[in-house]
UniProtKB/TrEMBL annotation:
GO CC annotation terms, alphabetical: cytoplasm
Natural source organism: Arthrobacter subterraneus
Protein name (database record): Dihydrolipoamide acetyltransferase component of pyruvate dehydrogenase complex
Cofactor(s) in the UniProt record: (R)-lipoate
Compositional bias segments (type: Low complexity): 86-102, 125-138
Length: 487
């Protein structure tokens, strides 16, 4: 079960299995705050898995009492995500009198009630609040097992503002007595409190740089004169974590940041590493005169400007025709229980289209592309590319391909020995189309030339099959009219 109950009055929703065997997700954004009233299946958080961005709905209705995580942290499947108090139920009381009387524990509970969680930029594990009961099994809407709610999901908004923690009974440098009229501070973890207390620093004198004025470790270090430089975004969209000024032992240069490998970048790294480790790949390529294809499309564009497919759709159509003749490239090798291997063949082609996005390289797949015309392929390629760029492609969109087409020519390069999209058996690459000198009928001419590159798994076929497929696609590009007439 993905939802459990901590007591008769508080329900804890655990991060569900979002599909495809994923074990963790990065919390991107909370859609609710503590103190909000939520309905069943109302979206409460946006998380990014290794496959896609997913909106997670609540299986419970009631008042949000605790958010178990901060934006940017990684949460394991099965770990607490959000706590909800059902309508009419009282908040859970501490089960231990000693814990209730402990000022440090009480202050920590105040922070938790105010929407603060323990994970820090040093990736410290969260410490449970004193007296917090263990989870027990419960029930929910049942619609969150793959990360999506049911149709007609409510959009209940916030009904009250987030509340700060109550002042504690004991007075410390960072915890005021009740009679001084000050609230308990927003602090990211007890360890940050201890750092300030050991240095004799009053946390009430600090302005937190976190959400809603939350005091982070860097705020304390800055006040103590030991703060590191502020983190900066990287080209990949990740944010470098703080790091004290230190020199790299290998290069001698100062280290300015550390970027965690997670989300899509982590998935890409793992897939590429596994592909190179497991697949004995080989690459063949050929230069192709694409002048006839460019002219054919230009002529169609003049006559049908709104429905003319792009060049990539035509190449995709030729590749699909080639796979019908050389189906060995549209296969997958899998291991059996006895450690032997077998080649899976498929009734159809799901054509993956490599798409560069702000979140990294994604490969959404056109389902049963072998049944589509060039116009249908063009429309579906554009639709899936838009979903990938917006982070809305589903895990099924991103993991169901059987053969991949990669148009790296859009980056201005001629060719590439691409890495196979594991566990597929081949990937076809298309370079940029440029004017080059070319011999036509014994005479030198300027033609539109591109390079086609095929990287294939040498376990599923030999060079003859790979060369035959690549030559078929190249001939189709050079003589598109003849091939399209047969499709």
């Amino acid at each position: 079960m993905s939802a459990v109950t901590t007591s008769p009055s508080v329900k804890v929703f655990l991060l569900p299995d979002l599909g495809e065997g994923l074990t963790e997700a990065e919390l991107v954004n909370w859609l609710v705050a503590e103190g909000d009233t939520v309905t069943v299946d109302q979206p409460v958080a946006e998380v990014e898995t290794a496959k896609s961005m997913v909106v997670v709905p609540s299986p419970f209705a009631g008042v949000v009492t605790q958010l178990h995580g901060e934006a940017g942290t990684t949460i394991n499947v099965g770990a607490p995500l959000i706590s909800v108090t059902p309508p009419g139920a009282a908040a859970a009381e501490p089960s231990s009198p000693d814990a209730a009387a402990d000022p440090e524990a009480e202050a920590y509970r105040d922070e938790e009630r105010a929407g603060v969680t323990v994970p820090t930029d040093e990736q410290l594990a969260a410490a449970p609040a004193a007296g917090e009961p263990e989870a027990e099994s419960g029930t929910g809407s049942g619609n969150v097992l793959i990360g999506y709610g049911t149709p007609g999901t409510g959009t209940g908004g916030r009904t009250r503002q987030r509340r700060g923690g109550a002042a504690t009974a004991a007075g410390t440098p960072d915890q005021p007595k009740p009679d001084d009229g000050r609230r308990a501070v927003f602090c990211i973890s007890p360890l940050v409190r201890k750092l300030a207390r050991d240095a004799g620093l009053d946390l009430h004198s600090l302005e937190g740089s976190g959400a809603d004025g939350m005091i982070l470790r860097r705020d304390v270090e800055r006040a103590l004169g030991t703060s590191a430089e502020a983190p900066a975004p990287t080209d990949s969209g990740e944010t470098a974590t703080e790091t004290r000024a230190e020199a790299d032992r290998r290069s001698g240069l100062q280290i300015t940041g550390r970027v965690p490998v997670r989300g899509v970048r982590k998935a890409v790294a793992e897939a590429m590493t596994r592909s190179r480790r497991e697949i004995p790949e080989a690459t063949v390529w050929v230069d192709v005169d694409a002048t006839a294809l460019v002219e054919l499309r230009a002529d169609l564009k003049r006559r049908q400007p709104d429905t003319t497919p792009g060049l990539l759709a035509f190449v995709a159509r030729f590749a699909l025709a080639g796979l019908a003749r050389y189906p060995e490239l549209n296969t997958r090798i899998v291991e059996r229980e006895d450690s032997s291997q077998e080649i899976l063949t498929f009734d159809g082609v799901n054509l993956g289209i490599a798409a560069q996005t702000d979140r990294g390289l994604l490969v959404p797949a056109v389902q049963r592309a072998d049944r589509m015309s060039a116009r249908e392929l063009d429309a579906e390629i554009r639709r899936l590319a838009a979903l990938a760029r917006e982070g809305k492609a589903t895990p099924a969109d991103l993991t169901s391909g059987t053969f991949t087409l990669n148009n790296y020519g859009v980056f201005g390069v001629d060719g590439s020995a691409a890495i196979i999209n594991h566990p597929e058996a081949a990937i076809l690459g298309l370079g940029r189309i440029i004017d080059r000198p070319w011999v036509v009928n014994g005479e030198l001419a300027v033609r539109k030339v591109t390079e086609l590159t095929l990287t294939f798994d040498h376990r599923v076929c030999d060079g003859g099959v790979a060369g035959g497929f690549l030559r078929y696609v190249a001939d189709a590009v050079e003589n598109p009219g003849g091939v399209l007439a047969d499709l």
